[in-house]
């Protein structure tokens, strides 16, 4: 079978990495690149840098990757759907829920694979975490806590920290918990003088009773990418920046020190840091997209899931604006 002919719209900070990975992915050929801003990172190589999505479609595509700023996602995705091109759109799916729904419906109606680029689902630590949770290693899940902190990235200009970063945590928490969000309460801050928020704290509850908490900001002088899942048998801690996963088991040795036993709900048990195969998440994401197009697997993040995540994201922003919790 011939390789998929793939087009890439946008070769900025994320698009340049997609260009490399698409070229390296078996079964995919990067045949067209489009970016009205040019190719500042020099990734086009022997390909002409086309002016827009329509010129890219004219090259004859089987699939496309959309890595332009969020405000342009709907226009580009709808054009690709109309042209019959399977498409992955970088997160979030669109600038708002209504736009996202139009995109998702267009791909469903056309019978095309529509995916959203939530690359954290392809992180080796989170893949292993989810597998172990599904295998019952933690028993009943009680709480999911995420921290996503770092300095401000100059590449971001059209959205705040909620739609750019917190959207990752909303998606991965629902994916790990196997449930949708039921209620959220959030607070935001604007400390860097920009139009959009640069800090957010979110607390909430899933439909299955799992508690969630997200701490996200662009104002930390260090990079922190941590996901903690606590259950009845212990806790799993993922450092997604390094792809590391550690299991903290509840202790099984009786505590004879009465004051400690009365104070603690559980005792500290064995700690295991797992040795994982650490494949590049972006490569796994492109392989999932390819295999969905070929009908082999459905491990990609669907556009319907992308819309649900955007619904939670907008509920977070509404809660922060109104100072009240929001039910979904």
From TrEMBL:
Gfo/Idh/MocA-like oxidoreductase N-terminal domain: residues covered: 4-118
Pfam families: GFO_IDH_MocA (PF01408), GFO_IDH_MocA_C3 (PF22725)
Gene3D superfamilies: Dihydrodipicolinate Reductase, domain 2 (3.30.360.10), NAD(P)-binding Rossmann-like Domain (3.40.50.720)
Domain GFO/IDH/MocA-like oxidoreductase per the UniProt entry, residue ranges: 127-236
GO MF annotation list: nucleotide binding
Protein name, entry field: Dehydrogenase
Species name: Bowdeniella nasicola
């Amino acid at each position: 079978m011939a390789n998929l002919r793939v087009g890439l719209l946008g070769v900025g900070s994320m698009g340049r990495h997609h260009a490399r990975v698409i070229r390296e992915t078996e079964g995919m050929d990067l045949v067209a690149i489009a970016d009205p801003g040019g190719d500042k990172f020099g990734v086009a190589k022997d390909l002409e840098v086309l002016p827009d999505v329509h010129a890219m479609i004219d090259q004859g595509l089987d699939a496309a990757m959309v890595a332009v700023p969020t405000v342009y996602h709907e226009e580009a995705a709808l054009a690709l759907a109309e042209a019959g091109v399977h498409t992955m759109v970088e997160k979030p799916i669109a600038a708002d829920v209504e736009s996202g729904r139009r995109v998702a419906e267009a791909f469903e109606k056309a019978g095309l694979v529509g995916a959203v680029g939530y690359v954290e689902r392809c992180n080796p630590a989170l893949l292993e975490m989810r597998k172990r949770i599904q295998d019952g290693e933690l028993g009943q899940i009680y709480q999911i806590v995420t921290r996503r902190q770092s300095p401000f990235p100059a590449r971001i200009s059209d959205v705040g920290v909620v739609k750019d970063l917190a959207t990752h945590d909303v998606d991965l928490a629902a994916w790990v918990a196997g449930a949708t969000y039921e209620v959220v309460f959030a607070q935001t801050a604007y400390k860097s003088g920009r139009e959009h928020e640069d800090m957010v704290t979110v607390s909430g509850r899933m439909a299955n009773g799992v508690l969630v908490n997200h701490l996200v900001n662009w104002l930390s002088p260090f990079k922190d990418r941590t996901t903690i899942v606590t259950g009845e048998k212990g806790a799993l801690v993922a450092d997604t920046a390094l792809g590391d996963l550690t299991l903290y088991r509840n202790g099984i040795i009786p505590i004879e020190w009465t004051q400690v036993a009365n104070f603690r709900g559980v005792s500290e048990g064995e700690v295991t840091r797992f040795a994982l195969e650490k494949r590049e998440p972006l490569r796994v994401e492109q392989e999932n997209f390819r295999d969905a197009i070929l009908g082999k697997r459905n491990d990609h993040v669907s556009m319907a899931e992308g819309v649900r995540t955007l619904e939670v994201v907008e509920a977070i922003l509404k809660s922060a604006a109104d100072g009240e919790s929001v039910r979904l």
